[in-house]
Specification:
Structural class: alpha+beta
Strand order of the largest sheet: 1-2-3-5-4
Largest sheet: 5 strands, mixed
Order of helices and strands: HEEHEEEHHHHHHHHEEEEEEEEEEEHE
Number of strands: 17
Shape: elongated
Distance between the termini: 59 Å
Length: 451
Amino acid sequence: MLPLLATLLLGLRPTLSGPEQLRDTARFRVHYTLDGVDAPPHGPADADAAATGLDEVAARWIDVVGMRAPLDDGGQGGDGRIDVYLRRLDGARGLTHAEDVGKLPSASAWIELDPRTALVSPTRLAAAAGHEAHHAIQYAYSASLPAWIEEATAAWVEHADFTDPSLQAETDAHFAALLAHPEIPLDTVDGTHEYDELVFVKFMVDRARDPRVVRSLWEAMAARGDAMAGVAQAGGAPVAVLLVEFGEWNLHACAADDGAHYDPATAGCRSDVRASPPGVGVVPSIAPLPLAPYGIAWRSVPVAGCGDVVANLAALSPDLAWAIDGAGPPVLASTLPSLVAVGDGPRTFVLATDETAAPDLALELSKTAPTCAPDAGAGPSPPSGGCAIGGGPAAPWWLAVALALIVLSARAWTVAAARGGPSPPSPSAGRSTHRASCRASGAGRPGGTSA
């Protein structure tokens, strides 16, 4: 514990538990021993696995994608290569330490890897080495960016560049965590969430259909000196807009994959989990929807028959963006403060904030008056009015009373007609008896924007 503490506090290179062996590659020097607590479980083969992982990540991200190579460490550890020490660590699979070489904000680095990761598999150790190698690449840009983006990027590289059953299980778990809790802010660092956000980096890459967006991201973050500013620059949109799009993609992840979003071939989710947006049981209603900075929220809203649902925001944050899943690109709410949900089944609203919290945010939901046009093939359209999602909250008492009065009135008209009295007007009077299809007035977003 004391040597590790000294390493973390003073930046001292570790001393291994036995005579040191070396395994050199073009950019890395692996230090290991065959004696004592630091000895790899499979001997030199584990040093080879680590070296393979280091080199594979360097070859892809430096030689192919064009990211910067780690900075020369000035001869520490024997020469200018990045030094990697295989030694027992209590907790982490690996650690990468930034090392100032007089080129701030960039830095060189040295790495520690726990060789016991090879007990899972040699590939798992190689992947852990690749994760840490990417940190060394990141430090060639900046050593002062937030931990969440460092870990999200390195974790995505680790799971995208290496294939192993244990890695697949981890990928599935990262997706499941985000699908269960979209409201957790993007930049949360709690020892687990920053790794879950590998899915956000995957979103950025799959959205661009180009891994070079990772290089663009790190170039932008380093130039701006700010992670979120770099995310916005690399993504070509405000962070809140990107988060809404990310939230929409996650509605189509894992078991809900529609083939139009995440690439299943690279760190893809293979589990049977899926997003479960909370439902708003009745319309009209007001649905509270508080959001922390950089958080995402989903709400499933009932839309049925010809009546469409209009959503307005009860409290407007200047950094809020929103969209209806599948109904057009995300927009800033300050630009478009109302959205109209059109369809025959529930539609999901997706909302996200930038750096400003929205603790009082709520959706004000109301039904539009329908306009129906003839459509060959069936009977009359359903009535407009309130609606509810199956399994949602019960309708209010006044709605039940109103429906009961409608039913009683209809029966009274029927009785009167049977006795020769006047008949109620036909629902199809003045138009074809074919089924009416819905053409809701103002269908789509206000201002003529397509929904």
